[in-house]
Amino acid sequence: MNHNYILLSNNEQGLCARHVLAICSLAVSTKSIEQKHIGEKGVGFKSVFAASNQPTLISHSWKFRFQVPGPDAMSYITPLWIHDEEIPECIFKQISTNRQHTHLYLPLKIAAHTSLAEQFLNDVARAVDPCILLNMRQLKKLEIVDRRQEKITIIEKQPIGATKLQTQAIVIFEDLTFLDLTGSVIQLCTCTGDRTFRVYECQIDVPSAIEQRGNPTTSLILAFPCEHDYDLNATVYAGLPVCDLGFNFMFNAEFHLVTSRENVRENVPFNTYVRDHLAVLFVYLLLNDIDLKKDISRYCPLSNIHQVKHSSWWLSMIDRINELITKHLSVLFDIRTGNSVVS
Questions:
Q1: Which of 179, 188, 180 is nearest to 135 (CA)?
Q2: What whole-number distance in Å separates Cα of residue 39 and Cα of residue 44?
Q3: Same-domain pairing of 212 and 68
Q4: CA dist 113 → 26, 33, 144, 149 (Å)
Q5: Domain that holds residue 41
Q6: Residues 195-213 as b or e (16 or more Cβ within 10 Å = b)
Q7: Cα gap 283→285, rounded to integer Å
Q8: Which of 138, 146, 221, 285 is deepest in the core (most CB within 10 A)?
Q9: Do both 182 and 291 map to the same domain?
Q10: Is residue 158 part of a domain?
Q11: Which pLDDT score, from 0 to 100, does residue 303 have?
Q12: What is the separation of C-alpha 181 from the centre of its chain, rounded to a whole number of angstroms?
């Protein structure tokens, strides 16, 4: 980033015709059932207009931009094809060294060198949350170059190994079913130090009565920081951070979000369905991973401490967790009763 632009580059395979068609359409996505990418109906790309009136995409032979405001509302999805000479020299030099990459150039709509522009760029830099790498299978490394200060920040994800919890094809607990449950230990390496997380992922079936979906399953991820002095920036993620509930663990799901993207839509049955599964999965993990069980008092959310941050909708998740912990207290504290509560 610089005073008057943001340039995003990645080393993916690049755009093809169907990707361009989706970007230049409304309510269209190229994400397949198998890919399990974040995002929905092409809305993500349209958000670039919050920063720029001329977002420009360069990927192999594809070179085009959008121009708003234009003759009509269709300007948001009408590509304008460009040539190399139309790309600013400073940008062309940067992308020329990595022609095989995909680049999104955003000349800022805010006037450069103003306090408003500097504040916006500072907010963008601070908004890069290392924990988003825990939710992305393909994304391994983030490099943020702030040319205003010639400052480079690198965040890298490194797998360490498996958790004590073994991979399970199917788990049935408290009448809920979880599929392909896995656990891994992942390290996030940053310039301020390395942080380690225990990350658990599974799939759950979504009944058509809850939501009609192209993909009948959805993914859940729960991550627990290993270091006691680590404060999470957010606890609720939908690929990217959504909000902070004050928990000492984080979770990621395909939540439907409010327009501001600062909370989930609490009146949507799918969100309630996912929330209730997360509560049960959280307790199952505490019961079955000895490393988590050792830190139960640290990870368990307490409604009386964090109530200020929670709506009644989120409080019901905390209540469900506490209810299940009370129910399975003997197992959590290794009290021998001769009964098995985990199936």
A1: 188
A2: 6
A3: no
A4: 34, 44, 20, 13
A5: 5-127
A6: bbbbbbbbbbebeeeebee
A7: 5
A8: 285
A9: yes
A10: yes
A11: 57
A12: 19
Token code pair at residue 304: 């009386």
Name the residue with tokens 């170059």: 145
Number of domains in the chain: 2
Taking only the tens place, the pLDDT of each residue in 20-66 is 888 888 755 544 444 444 444 344 567 788 899 999 999 988 999 99
Q: Which two tokens stand for residue 178?
A: 């979880």
Residue 329: both structure tokens together: 């207290």
Q: What is the pLDDT of residue 305?
A: 52
Any idea which residue has 């788990």 for tokens?
Answer: 171
CA distance 80 to 34: 32
d(CA 225, CA 235): 11
Instruction: Please state, in angstroms and rounded to a whole number, the distance separating the CA atoms of residues 321 and 327.
Output: 10
